[in-house]
Structures are given as C-alpha cells and as structure tokens.
Amino acid sequence: TNTPAYTADASSFAAPVVEAVTDPEDVTMNPFQQTEYSLREEIQQVDLPFDPKLPRGKPDGYELDSVYGVDSAAQDADFQKYNAPEGGIVAQILYYNETGQMLRVTQSKSSYTTIGEWMAFNELEFAPGVQIWTVGNVDTAVIDRSGGAGGPYVVTFLIKNRFVAIDGDSPLEVMLDMA
After folding, report:
1. Taking the CB of residue 40, how many other CB atoms lie within 10 A of it?
2. pLDDT means per 10 residues in the chain (179 residues)?
3. What is the pLDDT of residue 61?
4. SS3 47
C-alpha cells in the first residue's frame, strides 16, 4: 500500500502578528450573534471566548479576507462534526486567492489530546477516504468528504488546545501548507 507523504518547510512561512484590540474580560458575548470583522489591512484579535491560534500563515497567493465568530449550534451536523466538535462559538478565518478560491480555517477549543482520539470518537479510523498524514511534527487527519473520490477535503489537527479544521474549494496541497 502507498503511504501518503507530505513535507512542508516551516521556514518559508511567516508567523502572523496578532494584536489585542479588546480585553476579552471586558466583552459581553452574545452566543447567538455573528459578528464579522474586516481585516484586509492587518490581522487583529477578534472578540471571542478564546484567543485564536493562527496556523503557519497565509499560503502563497492567498490574502486574509476576514476573521469572525460563528455559533456552531446554528450550523448543520456535518459542520459540528468536522469543524467544531466542542460546539459553542468558534473562530473562522477566511483566505482567498486572485481566482476566488477560498480557504476557511475554523478553530474551537478542544478537549481531545490527539487527532486520533477525535477520529475514534467520530468512527473515522477506517472510513473510506480518511488518512492521517504527518505535516511537520503535527498529526493531521485528511478527510475526503466524498469517501475517497477526490474531494472536497477537510484537513484537521490540534494545536495548542485548539481543534483546527481547514476546508474550502482550494487544492488539498494548499490546505496542507497551513497545517
């Protein structure tokens, strides 16, 4: 059998600078309200119940569009399963390239300690089209939502107690560049 292999050179990614604009202690959150922030000029902290941890930075050819909070309970069951397993308010970060392809990074708090634990809970270990790839030193679940027919994909991993899911209409290689 073939084992998927993918490597990424972390030195080619610039870490984004995040500045706090509001002390989270001073914010009253309405979990049923979605608030969007335009961040075309610079990345800023969004008023969320946690600090979002950005992946490696934007991939080549993509620009940050916006960061906003979403009540995951208002989304469908697939979104909750693949993008926000802990529920509650999640952060979404959108990137677009010049042809309009989109990357959506969803982050939520996580009680899982490994991506394998999340996969086992969702009975994904032996599901068609699901693989674990190691990107850098991070175990990453690559889920082919078509069951192995070639996409669309969701790339999920854990970083600093956050569950991160990357999806969109961009190629898989671009999604893996963010893991």
Report:
1. 8
2. 42 45 46 35 54 74 88 90 89 92 91 91 88 85 86 89 91 88
3. 93
4. coil
Give the number of other CB atoms < 10 A from CB of residue 85. 20
State both tokens at 112.
Answer: 């899982």
Which residue has tokens 């969701």? Answer: 154
**Nearest residue to 135 via CA among 80, 87, 179:** 179
Q: Which residues pair with 110 in a beta bridge?
A: none
Report strand pairing: 35-38 vs 62-71: antiparallel
Q: Rounded to whole angstroms, how far apart are CA atoms 17 and 5?
A: 30
The owner of tokens 């042809």 is: 99
The 10s digit of each residue's pLDDT in 125-173 is: 888 889 998 877 888 999 998 887 888 899 999 988 889 999 999 999 9
10 Å CB burial of residue 21 (0-12, 13-18, 19+) is exposed
Query: Which residues sit opposite 62 in a β-bridge?
Result: 97
- Structural tokens at position 106: 């969803």
As given in the structure block, the two tokens for residue 35 are: 């608030």
